[in-house]
Structures are given as structure tokens and as C-alpha cells.
Amino acid sequence: MIRKTGKAQESAKSGPNLVHSCLIVVPSSLVNNWKAEFDKWWRFMRFPAVIALQAKDISTYQSTAKSMPYLIVSYDMAQRHVEKLRSQKFDVIVCDEGHKLKNVDGKLRSALVSLQIPRRLILTGTPMQNDYDEFYSLLDFVCPEEFGTLGEFRRMCNENPEALNRKIDECMLRRTSADVNTSHMPEKHEYILFCAASKIQKRIHSEICEYMTGDALSLIFFARQLVNHPKLLYDNLREKHDKSNQKHSALLLAFDGETMPRGGVKESGKLTALVDMLKCFRLLGECAVIVSNYIETLDMIEQLCKFLEFNIFRLDGKTQVQDRQKAVRQFNDQRDASNVFLLSTKAGGVGLNLIGASRLVLFDSDWNPANDQQAMARIWRDGQVRPCHIYRLITTGTIEEKMLQRQIKKTGLRCVIDAIEVGDTISTFADEELKDIFTFIEATECNTHDLCECPCDGSGMMENEMAEEEDEEEEEDVENRKIQKGQQDSDDDEEVDDEELESEITLLEHDDEVVEDSADEKDEDDQEKDLKKHEEPIKTKKNAKTLGVASLAELSRWRHFSPRHQDTWRHFMINSGLSQVETDVQLTFAFYQQSQY
Questions:
Q1: Which terminus in the chain has less CB density within 10 A, N or C?
Q2: Helix crossing, 321-334 with 31-41: angle to 10°?
Q3: Tens-digit pLDDT profile for residues 2-29
Q4: In a domain, 561, yes or no
Q5: Structural domain of residue 249, as residue ranges?
């Protein structure tokens, strides 16, 4: 998004030197990443930027602005030292991952607006994550007053979207994945792996479903902890119980006897799968990135990786800013198959280039699909030379499937900026939705596949391939019927004596026209029946898409695999790189897609 003021347009006519000083504001985790990019593109020239890691660096910029016109600062530092920045004169401000300014009344946004920089540029892959209000905040930041008040903007969205789109086109340069030149990029393979819940997880999930009283947000958090590992939930409940004897004590009582978690790998379906996946990756000679939303989950995975003798790199909210790029650089340079990079979705899920790895595992999902998409894009970046394999782990029949379905519904509906006008917070869930979220569906391979009513039965075939196979089978049946009919007619002819045969021939000669008319009439009837026969399954497929499952149509671009189809499942496991070790992991279902964007 670029603000084009009248002054800027007039200056363009008078000469090319419009910008002499530039403020670049970025997330903390990307400060050194931007430095690395400047190093890359100014390799044989004087370094043109000041990296503000401390307040004094902002003061240093004032004396070096002519030779070093770029000042790179984190959002946090920009907000804390806004007075120092206000004393400087900047011609343009660049806000990387600018969706951070989505709150129109937020302190960060207000601080940057107060700098009164005439030209403003926002870089973001997700300009609207939840609703139009957030999008308005970004538009109003780059083009103040151009879109009126928030109320006027809402009315324009509903009453005159065509005019709104024209105004948006004037200030937004949009580049979709299809516009990016990916000819130099390697293949990208994406997988959604559905893992069977352990016995403990099933039992405790049922308890959570029955324990519907109290704070729904807390219960959702409990359910998400459980699907990662029951020990995480138990430790959390124990800590809360120690602070307040009454809080969630009934749920804590469910952990008893056989359901008492010991912290073992087998107590979590996803963790069991992850162990074998890591072994496979190491045998393939490829590094891996593991992403999670939770520090506690990363702690658990780190202990596991140490036990498996992996070299661990880690970046989360506790990692010092100056240490982040160092960890990224070391990981990318070493490319050791025993290296594993543990990444927090929120701290490192945007902007980082982790091209030292070619395998990425998203261990748990976020309600907001934009966060997951950003995190999963860390390895398929400029500079990557190996085919990338990206795996998302889902515990079958649990809250994670509900989150996945909600994500698909959001990304499947395209409005102004590839998002849906529905929030992601707990306040947007109706009572029926909450009940559905906490319902554990045990008798299913994949509830998501059930809902999209795909006719593939987990065979791995696309709909067009199934249609072609049906056509081939039908043609074969027609040929077989013709052959059988010819043989039957031949047998009947042998039993007919010469006199009867001669009389039939004579009769046919006299009634030739009648016979031909009758045959034509029969052909038309048969054709009509055949046409109806073909139309029925087509209508069925069409109905499946136009019902409430239409929002899951995004999955029609993926191949669906079930272990029931042993040959195709074995082929899938080999191609996905998951067949290198003997395993007793129970994957119940899988989605697969290969893409170049």
C-alpha cells in the first residue's frame, strides 16, 4: 500500500530525487534479516543503513543520514522512542508486516502517524485478517481521510463495492502468489496428516466436552493443550489448582489412574508421529523446522529432540533480538541433517528465511489461517534449492479439525483481500458452534473429509480422474455387452432351421423400413436412459458442492488418502518421505497437494 500525495506527484515532474531519508519499521525478529538483505544487495558498496538496536543509534542516524539514508528500527523501539524519531526528518516510512497497524486506535499506529511522514508504504501479505475495520486502518494510514470515517467506509463496502475497489486500486499494489516469478523456485509439497488420538487424549477430551461450564475460552485452550500432549494440560491445571483450589478441580480429577500422563511420547498421537518423521528426515539427509504456537510445547519438543540427539536451534519470544539472526544464519549455513530449528509462530512466523531446511512441520494450528500460512512459508523462500515438504499435523476428530475446517472456510471465501468478514475471537462463536467445537468425533478417519462429501473414498484420485475412470469402465461394459449379445445371437442362429431363417430374411426384406424406424426409436430411448444415468451422479456431485459443504471446496484441489487403500497409501508414504523407518504410528488420513506458489 502506497500513499501518493499531491506533493509527491508534483515533485515527480520536477526531478527523480524524491526520497533522501527513509524510516524502515519492522518486527523485532526481522531487524537483522533486513540488515542481511542490505548486505546482499549492497555487497560491493558502502552499507547504506543504520540499524537501531539502542536509542543512541537513532541519534547517530541524524549525523549519517546523507551517506546512510536508511534507518531500520523495530516496532517496539519506534513506539518507545517516538520523540527521538519525531526530531528527525523522513521522506518516507516503510512498515514491514504492516498488518501490525490493523488497530485504528492502537498506540503503535498512533505513534507512527504522529511522525507526520508524507509518504507511507505498508508491506504485508495479510492486509485483512478478520474484518473490514482492520483493512480500513491500513488504508487510512497510507491515505489519511481518502476513505472517510470508519462508518463511511463500512457503508461503502456494503452499498458501493465497485467504487471502493477503484479507490483501493489507486493506493494498493497487489501481487498474488500467481504473479510471483517462481520459475527458479523448487517444488513445494504440502501435506495435512491426521493422527489418531491416544487413549488418554480420547478420555480427557470427552471429559472436557462434558465440562462445558465456565470460561469457554479457557476450555478451548485446554483442548488445544490436550491434543499437543495431555501432560501439558495436566501441568497447567495443577498450577491453576495450586493457586486456586476450586478452579477447574473437577477437570483435574479426570487425570487419575490410567489417564494420569507420564509425559511419554505414546500419550500424544502427534508427538508419536513427529518422532518417526524426524527419524525419516535425518535418514533422507534433510534439516527440519518445527513450528508451534506455544512455548511449553516447544519446550517439550526440545527435550525430545535432545533425547534423539539432534542439534537444536530455537527462536521464540524470549530469544534476544541480537541473537535471532545469528541462529538463523548458523542454521542456514550448516545444513546438517541432525539440525532442527524450533520456531514460535508469533515470534518467528513472519519474514524469516530458513532455507537451510527443506522439511517443515506445523505441530499445532492457529485460529487465524494467515498466521499458519506465514509460518509454513519459512522454508520455501528465495535461495531455497531443494524441494520443500510442509506437513501440518491434526489430531483426528478433535478441536484441531474444527480449527482446520474454519480456516478452510475463511480462505475459501474471496472478498476484497482474500479474507472473510468474520472474527477469530471466541466472542464470534455462537453456542451451537461452541458445542460443535468441543464434540469429539471418534468414529471417523477424517471428519473434514466427511464434511466435504468427496466421492474419492480416500483413494488419492481427483474428481476428473474418477470421471475418466468411470467413462473407461462404461465403455468397457458397453463393449462387453455387445460381445455377449453377438455370441448369444450366434447361438440362437445355429438353432434356427434353414426354412425359418429364409422366412425371417423374407420378412425383413418386406418390412425393411418398419424395422429401421423401430431401431431408431429404440436407440433414442436407450440414449435418453443412458443420458439420465450419467446425469444422476453429476447432479449428486453438484449438490454436494452447493450445500453447506461448499466452503470446503478448497479441498477439491488436494488428493485424499486413506490407509484402507493399501497400495495408494504405501505409494503416498514413500513419496512424502515418511517410509524410511518402521513405524507403528496410526495416521488415519492425509491430504496432499503439490504447488508452485
A1: C
A2: 50
A3: 444 444 344 444 456 678 899 999 998 8
A4: yes
A5: 198-259
